[in-house]
Design a protein that fits this description.
By secondary structure, the chain is α/β, with parallel strands linked by helices. 34% of the residues lie in helices and 19% in strands. The longest helix has 16 residues. It is globular and about 60 Å long.
Length: 298
């Protein structure tokens, strides 16, 4: 039986804002970590999911300030909309152009972005010369922003972005051209030309996400075009593995799903709020148990 937090008059409030938010794994991961950090169950904090509609963001943030919320995560659709409410933004969040972690300070709200480090976490133990990597990112939405900044951190040789909206693609390229990456944008009709030279493929679209687990952004014959030794990284973590990762595994390609990114962006956020080392393994166990005890990591 898992320990329960004892909520007292001194318990601080952490949370996540998004809309919708009821499917978030963050409360499960964070509360497990907070309990584990407090033997005896006396928790200094609890972590709650707050459904905040876009039009109610200002009132929610002012309310958080009024009631002493210590920090919170930010997810869709508020990662950019939160920016005007922050007194200070970290350099990494400025580079990404989005905030997923906010902390109360004496000066007001301070925002940062832990998605970049979260994305990098499962790549760190791979022995690769990232400067030789030919990256292909599917999608140019919010998570693609963190991914492209992560590619710059790795020093990747070239990054191609595939999207379905030419205006959004051009805007994306313009926003991140200062990163110094060899960044190019393409329509989906260019996939067959791009895949044979791709060594790191990253899916940032929701194609294949539950409840459409049979879908895949690439067909079997498109996956067959990837070079042996290519990495296929799908940001989706439900289902595990996605159809795309099943196709990659059938070809013995290196396959990575989005769960480690989720865990590490959460762990980094927790460390920022409570200024203690987060129990990453506790967070991983809690997330896996909640997802149905699936121990298989793609
Ligand atoms: P987003 O901002 O909505 O971006 C999604 C991108 O995918 C957009 O470029 C969108 O194009 C494109 N797209 C959507 N449906 C498509 C389709 N049927 N065909 C082609 N392109 C399509 O969403 P996001 O925040 O980046 O999240 C994307 C995925 O990443 C979600 O599945 C989410 O669960 C996952 N994610 C995982 C983590 C993690 O920690 N593991 C973190 C963040 C996100 P348009 O703009 O044209 O619609």
């Amino acid at each position: 039986m898992s320990a329960q937090p004892l909520i007292t008059g001194k318990t601080g409030l952490l949370g996540v804002i998004g809309y919708p938010i009821q499917h978030s794994l963050s409360p499960v991961m964070h509360n497990a970590a907070l309990v584990a950090l407090q033997p005896g169950g006396l928790s200094d904090y609890v972590y709650v999911a707050f459904p905040v509609k876009p039009e109610e963001l200002p009132i929610a943030i002012n309310g958080f300030a009024a009631i002493g919320v210590q920090g919170f995560n930010v997810t869709i659709p508020h990662k950019q909309a939160i920016l005007p409410f922050l007194a200070e933004i970290s350099p990494i969040a400025q580079t990404v152009g989005a905030v997923n972690t906010v902390k109360r300070t004496a000066q007001g709200w301070w925002g940062t972005n832990t998605d970049v480090q979260g994305f990098l976490a499962p790549l760190r133990h791979l022995q690769r010369d990232w400067s030789q990597e030919q990256v292909l990112i599917l999608g140019c939405g919010g998570s693609a922003s963190a991914v492209v900044v992560a590619c710059a951190h790795l020093g990747c040789g070239s990054v191609a972005i595939v999207g379905r909206d030419q205006t959004k693609l051009a805007d994306f390229q313009h926003r991140y051209q200062h990163l110094g990456l060899n960044l190019a944008v393409y329509g989906w009709d260019q996939l067959a030309h791009l895949l044979p030279t791709t060594t790191l493929l990253i899916n940032t679209t929701p194609i294949g996400l539950s409840p459409q687990p049979e879908q895949s952004p690439l067909t079997e014959s498109e996956v067959a075009l990837l070079t042996p030794g290519a990495i296929v990284y799908d940001l989706i973590y439900t289902p595990r593995p996605t159809r795309l990762l099943q196709l990659a595994q059938a070809r013995q390609l290196v396959s990575i799903d989005g769960l480690e990114m989720l865990i590490h962006q959460g762990a980094d956020a927790l460390e920022i709020w409570i200024e203690r080392s987060p129990p990453v393994e506790v967070m991983r166990r809690a997330a896996l148990n909640y997802l149905g005890g699936d121990e298989h990591r793609a």
